Known about the structure:
With 308 residues, chain A is α+β, with helices and mostly antiparallel strands.
Amino acid sequence: xxxxxxxxxxxxxxxxxxxxxxxxxxxxxxxxxxxxxxxxxxxxxxxxxxxxxxxxxxxxxxxxxxxxxxxxxxxxxxxxxxxxxxxxxxxxxxxxxxxxxxxxxxxxxxxxxxxxxxxxxxxxxxxxxxxxxxxxxxxxxxxxxxxxxxxxxxxxxxxxxxxxxxxxxxxxxxxxxxxxxxxxxxxxxxxxxxxxxxxxxxxxxxxxxxxxxxxxxxxxxxxxxxxxxxxxxxxxxxxxxxxxxxxxxxxxxxxxxxxxxxxxxxxxxxxxxxxxxxxxxxxxxxxxxxxxxxxxxxxxxxxxxxxx
Amino acid sequence: xxxxxxxxxxxxxxxxxxxxxxxxxxxxxxxxxxxxxxxxxxxxxxxxxxxxxxxxxxxxxxxxxxxxxxxxxxxxxxxxxxxxxxxxxxxxxxxxxxxxxxxxxxxxxxxxxxxxxxxxxxxxxxxxxxxxxxxxxxxxxxxxxxxxxxxxxxxxxxxxxxxxxxxxxxxxxxxxxxxxxxxxxxxxxxxxxxxxxxxxxxxxxxxxxxxxxxxxxxxxxxxxxxxxxxxxxxxxxxxxxxxxxxxxxxxxxxxxxxxxxxxxxxxxxxxxxxxxxxxxxxxxxxxxxxxxxxxxxxxxxxxxxxxx
Lengths: 308, 308
């Protein structure tokens, strides 16, 4: 294989109580990544014009470029890659945009290399990509992006990832045009938390994982709570609680901050509920004078979609 | 039904990373609880002589007596109960001794009342029993004792309990003759913990619950870690790390402090491994000059065992 084109999907990290350990793969939005094997032992990045195309083309500064360079080095390849990226996932939105590019490139290169990389190696290289955009990167976007479905990142250090089969659910992503830096959203978190809060959180995590695994919607609903991270970050997102409360009223199973925000996710049993939440949110932010993109997506069970 | 006799089993709370939210039911040791319906509207407690029979017979001070009184009041019963208790579970050992009496009495009375109580009501009354022996009681012993198997206590306030089907496993309980007060073991815990430690812990909880649900022994092994509570309480239990390290060497899936100790539990895939750990531990504590009781038990999937 000398050429491959894929869709690398958006992901929702954290899912309320699962801060840094849970991630969910969606169908859209997505980045398009096309990789060509080239004779020169180098990495070329080409950006296809899109609404979000202001990312670096210097491969060392690009979340897809750096892992490509590293793979060429580590596997002593005598060829290189031309990587064409069409960004479809808003940058710094909390939808795993940088992870999608990183994972998409690693996934595509692995196909060109006849699936030489193990799952753990794919994670490792995609994480190298993530390190371009954030210090101390986590795997809660790259893991679901690479493998699909709901992933538990049991341990980032050893890249111990567990995939959980979950039902077909719909997610409404609400992305208000508010600037939230991933690094700032991380830096504002407390170093220490109350043990009682932590215990509440781990009860909810155990409940949420079990709810997803068993398709127990009521349990998902009861468990998708976060009293630790969400209250700290919510003030960064104008209208967060309005959207959250209304989403729950409209029938969402859970609603929270996607990754570090400002995107808000609402998980729904069906498309009709997701559509109602979309309509409300669009209207709400229009009335606030804030631009807002909204996406409705099914859960993606398999990861990147191969286009050719 | 006017009379019932049951075995109320020991339970392992916490299971390393699941502090206050996980509990596992065993076959043995157990308390024997016999309840007779009596004409007088009162509660009588009778103790059958055993190694651990030094518990109060005043029903208001007995973990089985208090819920019985409360049930008579709440359900406006015009009769009462004679409760005969033969303690088989060591007191203050970390094996859910007080919970077994409380749950056993509630379970037995519920049978006499033709299963009038809902699961949540059973939990509520058993928790009232627990409050006799500890302030701010938790449901991580009573829930598995009442319902069997592995239980998640998602939320103690609302008594939101989730039961997880798990494989047939063996547990070795090692109970050295060391005094650890449940209240002291709780009071010594920190009020606050590092967010990074909490994140590690919730990764492990998600992994452990999934490992149990899927019968994935390797995942159970990787996840059964506790860097928050165990290091604080371990110094109370002489020889804890010797037993733990050797148990893991001998093939345990996990080993930690049962409840607030001093009992040490080791979860094993089979009886042979449990037996090896038993032999080592007996010998180890004998050499230390510390008395030690050891039990090997299968996981109990159904809760109290009805004898007649």
